[in-house]
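User: Fold this, then the next.

Assistant: Folding the first:
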Amino acid sequence: MCIFNDNSLIYKIGKFDQTCFTYTGHGYAAGGWNVDMLGLRPNWTERYDAAGREWNALNLSQTEMPDIFRSSGYGVVENKPALIGGVSCTVKAGGGTECTKTNTVYRLRTHTEPDNYKWEEASEKVTTPRSSHLVIVAPNTVKFGCGAIAGGN
């Protein structure tokens, strides 16, 4: 479920575990599971048209992505929307799916026509494959790690 600033409940029936974000003044839902759970219906990225109060599939958006891509984090890489990590699934020939957590980052290649938006694999990777996570921008001056606290035991 995605809720944007105009308090519109934006939900694509039969789709869940998608990544929601805003870009260029529109709401988007990317990836997720579809109604048939087998990926037989493509999991396009969809753009919400607030004026018409409807979803529009970006038909070329998933051409370079797995059959099913879900549970990714969202961030911005090189000023473009990015799906970071997540679960990548392929549909088996006899039915069913095979899914694994991924360290892949997909960046949205934009175009003057939204129908030509397309996710492309970025050269950046997540250090550890993960899913169902948040992406937080931390200043590069932050030092992460563990160590003894002065005066502590």
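Now the next one, as you asked:
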Amino acid sequence: MRKKIKMILDKEQIKKILPHREPFLLADTATLSQDGMQAQTSFYADPEMGIFKGHFPDEPVLPGAYIIEAMAQCAGIALLAGVCPSDQKPYLSSVSRMRFIRPVRPKDTLICRASALEPGGAVQSGPDIYEFTVSAQVNALQAAKGVITITLR
């Protein structure tokens, strides 16, 4: 069942939510579900990104750490724009059950999705700790999936 769209954000609006900036802002657009429990982001893997010059230069791929960070930023957007508006900053505090299924290459558009695991997203003892299932796709094919925890500080 698809959620009704609550809000579509461009890069400038995302910058008002996340503390990240280029070259480490890994979301060009974001869409939030009406209930604020889910977000989707898109990120164009520009061939001019410096990381591609050194990460397998003969066959460049986006490093898994960047894919995890893109999914974490998607979760941060869901958290700060929907589930738990806050002046605090989102920090990636854990990654579990992460699988990388296919590479992300220059010129690909990475689509990330994040969904809070429980209503309100809180799953650990502290009130500022939130867990999300996350996934990334390229051309409608799964590139990565797992679970991440975001802590607000």
